[in-house]
Amino acid sequence: MLKRSLAAALLVTASLVPAHAAKTTLVLGMAVEPPGLDPTVAAPVAIREVTYANLYEGLVRIDREGKVQPLLAKSWEVAPDGLTYTFRLQTGVKFHDGTAFDSADVKFAFDRARAPTSTNAQKQIFAPIDAIETPDPATVVIKLKEPSGNFLYYLGWGDASIVAPETAENNKANPVGTGPFKFKAWNRGDRVELVRNADYWQPGKVKLDSVTFRFINDPQAQVAAVRAGDVDAFPNIGAPELFADLKKDSRFTAVAGNTEGEIVAGLNNAKKPFDDVRVRRALMHAIDRKTLIEGAYSGFGQPIGTHFSPNHPAFTDQTKAIPFDQAKAKALLQEAGYGNGLSLTIKSPQMAYASRSAELMAAMLSEVGVELKIVPTEFPAKWIEEVFRNKDFDMTIVAHAEPLDVDIYARDTYYFNYKNEKLKAAVAAASKTPDEKARFAQYAEAQKILAEDVPALFLFQLPKLGVWNAKLKGLWENTPIPSNDVTEAYWVD
Amino acid sequence: MLRLIASRTASLLVTLLAVSAAIFLILEVLPGDPAAIMLGTAAREDTLAALRLELGLDRPAPERYLAWIGGMLRGDFGISLTYRMPVSTLIAERLAVTIPLSLLAILISTLIAIPLGVLAAARRDGAADRAVLVFSQVGVAVPNFWIGILFILLFATGLGWFPAGGFPGWQAGFGPALKALVLPAFALALPQAAVLTRVTRSATLDVIGADFVRTARAKGVPAGQTLRRHVVPNALIPVATILGLQLSFVFGGAILVENVFNLPGLGRLAFQALAQRDLVVIKDVVLLFAAIVIAVNFLVDIAYLVLDPRLRSRA
Hints:
The structure holds two protein chains of two kinds. Chain A is an alpha+beta fold. Chain A is built from 13 helices and 20 strands. In chain A, the strands form six sheets. In chain A, strands 11, 12, 13, 17 and 18 form a five-stranded antiparallel beta sheet that branches. By secondary structure, chain B is mainly α. Chain B is globular.
């Protein structure tokens, strides 16, 4: 009895607490659980979606506009020859275990990433490094073997996070960084919990006291969790067919932004008939991107005409280069000697966007006399082996999730089997040009070459369908870098 | 009794060994390189080689098989390739969801099915019988995950009585954890209850028609008492067999329901491990499923002994 009246009293007190104290906890939903919490030893995007900017920090960071901003490095100078980078570090920064951050940690983190035993998924970021010097605890000098135009940008990736020698080995299960949130618990299969780092070097920077990442794979379950209020935000929800309903619901903010993922139907360019540019162009002319996006992603998603993210400042729209034109497609096929029809196969992974796009493409291609057979495959396991490594395919379809990955078309060993010296020259020039304007001009050139040469059918940018409580502010609309940065998130009344 | 247990244990070990060899061979021929999956498409050859070395994937197959079996015998289930933590810990965390969920589902299923089945048989062709038949027909036809989706729409997003999914963990307290399991347990239980109801009904009808029941009634035993003392105990033997099968099914087959309710159970662990080719986890979990099926069958055999005195004297 006493207990009950006590509980009642507590309830009354709780309801008397002023309502205008804004909430400081956040529950954020993600589709995929990360397999570990160390972005410096594995590729999965889900790792970055928990840790980027929240747990770990790099010398620099990529902001919501896709631009490079200082972070652990407060400033830097690049020598005129583009070979020497001098970084001035923040002082008074501590790792979550209490040890101090200084230039030795930067040297350790980068040496670890470029060592022969390193399992860093983006080891090429560190390939240009010749030597790392630490003249004093607050200065790092990085000498490059050759100029690298995107070096600073790449240092903003999760793969270049700064980790400490004392704790790096255990970061997979017990991450220790310098970020505004520190690791609290991981209930595998369900959630990762972070709490505010009271010793953060930018006091007052974050408003939230705790962030919980919940992993909900099933799209229906994701929407149910949002509607039931079990999660406050789902930055990239997997149910495009329900997104229009969520947009109409005034309890939520629903924003369709862009990810870094270009959905392309890759062609095996070394194989007949794809070695003929007329066939590639004909296939592209036969695709009505707008209808495809309508069917494959309920109309959300930006059509693309080349392989370059609209989030990147160097983006140019190339969708007009080879527009939807069935007559032109037929004429080109006739010219290439396939006037009587053509039969192709597409290896289509299980993701809904891929299998739906493949079905729509089959219907569109049949209108110009091309029969497209759909062969299901499993991503990533089987696809990486069959398509990516063994190149045993005609056509395939996946989203390429890495930011700034136009250089894949310049790699001889890449699964497209594509060789184009003009493109290689443009990509190489861009990667060696430190001057931003000149570099972006080279990227524009590369985008144009790809749009006209069609080594893959460029379909659409995978959208980021974000939905969150209308009282929650500060989340990102686009993801120029794979992340769920909650450092600027806050609640209003 | 002891002899039975000894022979069952021996057959359990032989079966497990055969299962272990089969699962190992299947995973050997299954396409997919765990290192390539972890490191993605940008990884360089030397990086892949470094990770394979770290994970021990470079060693020859027979050596890896023996290391796995040897480890199991010592109680070492190995380290997960993706989570990089002991598989025994991972499995234990998942069992803390899957075992209570399965037992709760079977309990609900039994509590629904046996009374309904007996009632239907006792009122054969009556209105109650017809109603029960309709329930079991619908229950058999509707998949459990779909019931789950309906439950979420009604009780979670609609009425807000239960969470829409997820599992807070037992450390959050008994109440919240149990609350998270109620809807999925009912979703799992209803189709099972439908099957079990039909089995109970027909088993009861078989026994009702038997000579000894007629004799009991002729001796003047009241109908209710005949049902309780003579009919139901005999009818439970086939019911126990089906219940055993259902327990194995619920244990391993809850994956769709776990997916809909986003529960971190054993089925989801197996599915996730397969997608990421976490070979160590897949092997251990499949072997565990096999062990559970065998163990449940063993328990069902024991249950026969308890339910049927004739078998007891023979054993």
